[in-house]
Specification:
alpha/beta; six-stranded mixed sheet
């Protein structure tokens, strides 16, 4: 029974680390059907303390998702898109029981307790939609999850997954 619980918790931990947790908030008085075009808010994006390459990857992913939803990029937009990102190191401690390979040699006869410590970087991406006419925030999506990949195609895939999960909740009231 104890072994089954350990397997379940380990599986849950691995699955939960790979997903993106998303929270959204919006101005309930806003009519989101009036937004047809977008542009990126350079002042807001410049303040994000991430590498220029990661900014570019995030902006490309946002643009791709909005284009798929039928929005157009414009020099005279209805809404501006801004981003903010942060990361933090997390430490996970997992304890369990190692089962013996051989039943004949103590102290391995009954197995031994183990303690596993893993470090992981968790990132949070904020995507803000700002009404151009009113100059106010009308929608915000926040995605948090393990960053995992540090370079290459895996990093691009992870950024795209973050953005896709966040923007799936826009506009409010629409099903994914």
């Amino acid at each position: 029974m104890k072994k089954l619980i350990i397997i379940f918790l380990s599986t849950f931990f691995l699955v939960s680390c790979s997903s993106v947790r998303v929270v959204t908030d919006y101005d309930s008085k806003t009519d989101f059907t009036k937004y047809k075009t977008f542009a990126f808010y350079k002042k807001g994006i410049d303040k994000a303390k991430i590498s220029d390459l990661d900014k570019l990857r995030i902006l490309k992913a946002i643009e791709s998702e909005l284009l798929l939803k039928g929005y157009r990029k414009s020099d005279n937009p209805d809404m501006l898109v801004s981003i903010f990102a942060k990361s933090r190191k997390k430490v996970y401690v997992d304890s369990g029981f190692d089962y013996p390979v051989s039943y004949w040699y103590p102290p391995y006869y009954f197995g031994r307790e183990r303690l596993r410590v893993t470090k992981q970087t968790e990132g949070t991406l904020f995507i803000d939609f700002i009404d151009v006419k009113n100059k106010k925030l009308v929608w915000q999506g926040i995605g948090s999850g393990a960053l995992g990949a540090r370079t290459g195609a895996k990093k691009v895939e992870r950024i795209q997954a973050f953005v896709k999960e966040i923007i799936a909740n826009y506009p409010p009231g629409k099903e994914k």
